[in-house]
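Below is a filled-in request sheet from our internal design queue. Each sheet records the structural input a requester submitted and the sequence that came back. We keep these sheets so that new team members can see what a complete request looks like end to end.

REQUESTER: design group, bay 2
PRIORITY: normal
MODE: inverse folding
CHAIN LENGTH: 284
BACKBONE (tokenized):
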């Protein structure tokens, strides 16, 4: 049996992993480069703040931006408290029984369901059965259900990362379990919880299938006035101008994609900054 030099093996492994990383990054860089190259010329203040005109071939995308932010804000407002509370119960209170194991398995499986299935579910329950119609609230509820497993999973991971000694020391001083969770566990788990929440926001910002059935409109040259209004949304708007409108200027298509991309990347950047900030405040 041939024995390789340990130093040579390590160099080979590092080189291989570096090449694998480059191969994974190159397609992303190419996509971003193509979008910026073809779309930056159409980006202007008017494009970001004006209403669409001439059958969406000119004007701006302001209603689509407002609609996307409205849906995403309502969705995370619904999902975050429920997801964090569920994670606290499963991680801090629930005993390891068959029922809790089944619940945890169901949460993992729900995270893998295709988004179009959630869209059909939202159409049947929120749009038709509950009578919300195609609206912001119907789309937000659909997205919140879709992202609930992700929020619960990331929040549980953040709670698990807090050392057990913190809980034991607090309980040894006579502090109740809830006070321990509130004042010791949650503050130390906050970086992971916020990171998971913001990254989930970035994900649902680009979803098309769920809002296609529950919230998005083909063309609405005005901003929504209530949560029960139908809205334009950037992902669906991008799909429409790319496939359904003939003679659509190419730079407008790529500029819309660039705005959506910048929104998602900005949210990811906020997650990174928040994680660094709260990690610096940790005592361990």
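RETURNED SEQUENCE:
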């Amino acid at each position: 049996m041939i024995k390789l030099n340990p130093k040579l093996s390590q160099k080979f492994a590092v080189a291989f992993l570096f090449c694998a990383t480059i191969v994974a990054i190159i397609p992303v860089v190419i996509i971003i480069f193509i979008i910026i190259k073809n779309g930056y010329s159409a980006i202007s203040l008017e494009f970001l703040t004006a209403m669409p005109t001439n059958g969406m071939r000119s004007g701006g995308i302001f209603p689509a931006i407002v609609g996307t932010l409205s849906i995403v804000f309502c969705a995370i407002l619904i999902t975050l408290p429920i997801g964090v509370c569920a994670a606290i119960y499963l991680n801090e209170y629930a005993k390891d029984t068959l029922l809790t194991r089944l619940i945890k398995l169901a949460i993992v499986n729900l995270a893998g369901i295709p988004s179009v299935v959630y869209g059909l579910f939202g159409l049947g329950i929120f749009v038709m059965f509950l009578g919300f119609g195609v609206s912001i609230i119907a789309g937000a509820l659909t997205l919140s259900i879709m992202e609930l497993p992700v929020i619960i999973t990331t929040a549980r991971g953040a709670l698990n990362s807090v050392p057990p000694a913190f809980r034991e020391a607090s309980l040894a001083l006579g502090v109740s379990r809830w006070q321990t969770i509130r004042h010791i566990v949650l503050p130390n788990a906050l970086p992971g919880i916020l990171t998971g929440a913001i990254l989930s926001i970035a994900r649902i910002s680009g979803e098309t299938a769920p809002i296609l059935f529950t919230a998005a409109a083909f063309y609405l040259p005005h901003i929504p006035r209530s949560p029960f209004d139908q809205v334009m949304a950037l992902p669906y708007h991008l799909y429409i101008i790319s496939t359904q409108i003939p003679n659509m200027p190419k730079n407008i298509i790529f500029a819309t994609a660039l705005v959506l991309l910048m929104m998602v990347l900005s949210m990811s950047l906020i997650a990174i900054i928040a994680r660094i900030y709260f990690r610096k405040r940790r005592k361990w």
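SHEET NOTES:
- The chain has eleven helices and two strands.
- The chain has a mean pLDDT of 86.
FILED BY: M.R.
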